[in-house]
Design a protein that fits this description.
mainly alpha; 14 helices; binds iron/sulfur cluster
């Protein structure tokens, strides 16, 4: 009698039978999981999982969304590549990054930290979910990168904050005069929350370049990346000119 040999079929592309999305190649799923597992923080955030659900019971996002930190941790712990990919399409963006789960897990896992790793990898791979979630933050990102801070006093207008109720009358106060009353000279402006030193901006650009932040921006929004590049080039030129002027002043002195 011939020996029966069980041949496991090649897994092929992963596909949800009811999904309209095209299937994802196994190699791609493995590549994504490798990037998650090789993240420097991964081993610190995941030590095992009892599937006890304490994290989900204390998770604020789990109360309002179709989201469960227990499910995310289980997908990673069991190396469920298709499930991980599916969670990266939507669920991981529901986490509020409050880290209540990390404080409660008996295994000292950090589901919130694992979600952060998955988000980074989603950005690295240019996943559509990352682009969709981050696009509304383009304006904020541009403001931070071009001015060094996020909010400016002149952004606070009656139209922008109609829900302030009676307090909105304070918005009509002469902000430029009030700001000048602050003893810190770098806050004597209404265009930005404070004036960021040119050298500090240029140093921050180098940090963002070296740490891959700019690469991530390019991956999720190429137009925004181009605008930011122009801002950075201009500031760098200004800084070079300022350095030259300093040198000339020293020679003349
Ligand atoms: S991550 Fe921790 S709290 Fe959540 S199910 Fe696993 S062991 Fe329980
Ligand atoms: S960090 Fe995320 S997963 Fe953890 S409790 Fe907060 S919202 Fe839930």
């Amino acid at each position: 009698m011939d020996e029966q040999v069980a041949v496991r079929p090649h897994p092929g592309p992963a596909a949800d039978p009811v999904s309209e999305n095209p299937p994802v190649a196994r190699e791609k799923l493995e590549e994504i999981f490798e990037d998650i597992r090789n993240h420097p923080l991964y081993d610190m955030e995941l030590h095992g999982c009892l599937n006890c659900g304490i994290c989900t019971a204390t998770c604020p996002s789990a109360h309002y969304y179709d989201y469960s930190p227990r499910e995310i941790v289980q997908l990673l712990w069991t190396e469920n590549l298709e499930g991980i990919y599916d969670a990266m399409q939507e669920k991981i963006w529901a986490c509020a990054q409050c880290y209540t789960c990390a404080a409660r897990c008996p295994f000292e896992n950090s589901p919130g930290g694992l979600v952060m790793i998955m988000r980074e990898v989603a950005i690295k791979h240019g996943m559509q979910s990352a682009k969709d979630v981050l696009r509304p933050f383009s304006r904020v990102l541009l403001k931070v990168i071009s001015t060094g801070n996020q909010l400016a006093p002149n952004m606070i207008t009656r139209d922008a904050f109609p829900d302030w109720g009676p307090n909105v009358s304070k918005v009509s106060a002469p902000l430029d005069v009030l700001r000048k009353a602050i003893p810190v000279p770098t806050m004597h402006t209404t265009d930005t929350a404070w004036i960021v030193n040119l050298r500090t901006s240029v140093e921050l650009y180098t940090i963002w370049e070296e740490t891959g932040v700019l690469q991530q921006i390019e991956m999720v929004d190429e137009n925004l990346f181009d605008v930011i590049r122009d801002v950075m080039d201009e500031k760098r030129e200004q800084y070079e000119e300022w350095l030259l002027e300093q040198e000339e002043d020293e020679h003349e002195a």
